[in-house]
Amino acid sequence: MPFSIECREGTALFDGERSHTYPELAAAVEEIAAQLCSSGAKTVGIALDNGPLWGALDLAALHAGLICVPLPGFFSPAQLGHVIQDAGIDAILTDRADFFSELLGDKVLHVAAHKSAFGNYALMRCAASPAKVPLGTVKITYTSGTTGRPKGVCLSRQSIETVANSLLQASNADADYRYLSVLPLSTLLENIGALYVPLLAGATCVLLPLNEVGLEGATKFDAAKMVRAFEKYKANCAILTPQLLQSMLALGHPLPDLRFLAVGGAPVSKRLLEQAEEQGVPVFEGYGLSECASVVSLNTRESRRIGSAGRPLPHVALKYTEDDEILVKGAVMLGYCGGEAIDGYWPTGDTGYLDKDGYLHLTGRKKNLFITSYGRNVAPEWVESELTVHPAVLQAAVFGEGRPWNVAVIVPKDASLIDDAVRKANGALPDYARIGKWLIADTPFLPQNGQLTTNGRLKRDAIWPHYREKIEALYGEEHGVLR
Predict the structure, then answer these.
(1) Which of 51, 56, 113, 304 is the most buried (most CB within 10 A)?
(2) Distances 339 to 50, 157, 220, 419, 425 between C-alpha atoms, Å
């Protein structure tokens, strides 16, 4: 049984109305695991909103020895279709059977309704070709997409449990903790940090539908709802992205019961952390990535340095390349779905260093991938390609690092049709990758002005400083500028 839940007492999961004890959770996991095994499924996808049922199904798949693939609700239909095929998912556990029936068409073999003490769901069997995954894979987590076709990160049970135990040790979590799940459980950080860690601690996971904590899609957020949820359910711990933290702090509403707010998933402004300090909010910045089974380093109550990503967790070993790229060993993924197995240090693509006291500092990213303030990965080339397919757009450069929405600098063929081009591009993109605002470039991007390579690639390091002031003005109009 995962995380010895059958040996614990007290409330394990709470949905806002009903408490589910540890023995009740253990019984449900046994029952659902038996159903999954009898179905003949080998790789199951979970497509549900946050709630105790999500947790029970996830634990049941782990207990049954199946491969579990969380299906993010913020993925586009095209991305979901890719994940289902790429991972070889032959069963989907969902409350949206009609949606997936339409998405998969004649690949659906059978749909069975199931009832449990944690809620009702459909088990949809699908025709699937087995995926090539490394031996020992128990979970495949898909990132929010560096392109339109996200990669599946294959993780072992040992890696997942290693990270969860390290986080338990670092956070000093105990049975009095009440974790409010604010982010989708389909994201690896939330899955481990807001479900597995509390269960290891014998604590309570408060698992509400996402709209009840103020989150809709990947970018719409009502901070007042989240604050009310903390108060109503007496939650004292959570994981937030920088944008969610900023929105919460802007309310200035005191939450004296808070004990531990981890913030990560995207670069965090030092000023934002200082603002939290001024308001007495216990915020602890961390760093990680899916390929390293989520968290790599974390600030804690005992070891905290604002502006750093904290000290590496106990299981982590770091080293650096000559150009300061961070390499991580310890609980590294087995490999990508469909790829070869890997071993040893993982190149993160991030640059940084350890200071003399052992705190990790991040200094940048090696490649063009940026992370929005909601923690979603975006490759600008992907968004730019959707814009430049429109006949009105000659060139486009997209920026959005650490921001709630993206800005495009556009070289037009027909400026009067840019609104239409942006609208159509956004229609093909998930919400976290869409363009929030755009501006017209002063001149085309050319080798002559240093903004284009001779083989036609954008030189972002030259484009950004040229348009930085105008771009920051666009953000400042609505959200203020994080510095």
Answers:
(1) 56
(2) 30, 19, 35, 40, 30
